[in-house]
Write a structure and sequence with these properties.
Length: 414
């Protein structure tokens, strides 16, 4: 029997600074054994060989571009999967009108509410909608009442992201010694005995990095044994410039701080997963005060390493972080509207500082409670796997090909 031809459309699998790149890489590697997978890749600036599926580089210009048309004509897909923020794919309607035989699955990260009416045609021309969170499903239902919506969680590779040594003090001491032996600067081998706060991700306004740095300055007025580690992505290229990717000037913000000597910033464009796991293991808490998130793989990666998470209580973050179980929620102060009138949360530095102080008290004075939260993080992360994500995608493909829809009161069960 001939395999089903799948064309997966998302960010290039080579981009290690973008979560959607990892999502596509993990899914396509796994489902290619069941189906014939091809990958139409945004922002792809590298070789197209070396994968177990063909890659078609396409521009990220939100149109049915000639490159994507060529990919469709070559692959002749039975199913197309569009994986990213929903606004990236206004051309799904045009694809369905041009190739009505193609089944379309929208795998959308929903990072705010409500969904603008502009997205109605995108939703209408998808045979099935997948979202990685319950929050995303609720927003789709509240906005459009669209029943063909199924949750397909993202995963985490717990063979990569895991505790190296459970005893944090011992691991930090070993890390310092290795850094000294390698001749690295003093601030890199001074994590022992410190309360290490980690942020990793794009240094963008969405991530509220400026508020985090200001909060750490306040926090350091009260606590003298803390370190803020900023492992930031600052990736620029002709392609990213065209689609509006930009970053906050982290170094300038650091220079304005009273305690800049306690902040360590590093660009992580080329860091590999093994090195990233080492950084997670050095952290005592992971802080993500984002305005909104469609999921956040970094939260699961940190938890898989036994690191409690501080995150904004909005969008997907409010679903992944459970107060006093696997982390601490930061309550938003205000909401403001961004593109397409979607709400974004803003957390004030005072709020971040307050929750950091609570986490610090657990770490310094309530060791048993802190260690229990770390264990809870491992338990929570164990609920998510890329194999589970891939199996869900395979079921979704079967649904659209064979119309195996079982409609419950509010979403599709497969």
């Amino acid at each position: 029997m001939a395999k089903t031809r799948i064309l997966y459309v998302s960010d290039s699998p080579l981009l290690n600074f973008v979560g959607q790149s990892r999502v596509g890489r993990e899914i396509c590697f796994r489902i290619n054994s069941e189906h014939e997978v091809s990958y139409a890749a945004f922002l792809h600036e590298g070789p197209t060989d070396g994968f177990n599926y063909p890659i078609f580089p396409i521009p990220k210009d939100q149109s049915l571009c000639p490159e994507l048309i060529t990919a469709i004509e070559i692959v002749k897909p039975n199913v197309m999967i569009f994986s990213h923020d929903i606004w990236q794919f206004p051309y799904i309607k045009e694809i369905k009108e041009k190739w009505p035989e193609i089944k379309t699955i929208g795998y959308f990260t929903i990072d705010g509410e409500p969904l603008h009416l502009y997205f109605q045609s995108i939703i209408d021309y998808c045979d099935l909608i997948l979202v990685p969170t319950r929050y995303g499903r609720r927003v789709v239902l509240d906005s459009f009442g669209y029943a063909n919506t199924m949750i397909c969680y993202f995963g985490v590779d717990r063979e990569i992201f895991k505790p190296i040594i459970w005893d944090k003090d011992e691991f930090k001491s070993q890390s310092d010694e290795k850094a000294r032996e390698a001749g690295k600067p003093q601030h890199i081998h001074d994590v022992s005995g410190k309360f290490n706060i980690l942020f990793t991700g794009a240094a963008s306004d969405k991530r509220n990095v400026a508020a985090l740095i200001e909060a750490f300055d306040q926090f350091s007025d009260k606590v003298d044994d803390a370190l803020l580690i900023l492992l930031v992505n600052c990736y620029f290229s002709q392609s990213t410039a065209k689609c509006g990717v930009f970053n906050i000037d982290v170094k300038s913000l650091m220079y304005e701080c009273r305690h800049s000597d306690r902040i360590y910033e590093e660009i992580n464009n080329h860091i590999n997963d093994s090195q990233l796991n080492l950084v997670y293991n050095q952290a005592d808490v992971y802080c993500l005060p984002s305005a909104n998130e469609g999921f956040s793989l970094t939260i699961l990666e940190a938890m898989a390493c036994g690191v409690p998470v501080l995150a904004t209580n909005y969008s997907a973050m409010g679903e992944l972080v459970i107060d006093d179980y696997n982390g601490f929620k930061i309550e938003p102060n205000v909401f403001h509207r961004c593109s397409f009138n979607i709400k974004r949360a803003y957390v004030h530095p005072d709020q971040i500082c307050s929750r950091l102080l609570e986490a610090y008290q657990r770490w310094s004075n309530k060791k048993d409670e802190y260690e229990q939260i770390r264990k809870n993080c491992l338990e929570f992360a164990s609920r998510y796997s890329w194999d589970g994500t891939a199996n869900c995608i395979l079921r979704a493909i079967d649904v659209v090909l064979n119309n195996h829809f079982i409609v419950s009161s509010d979403f599709i069960e497969v």
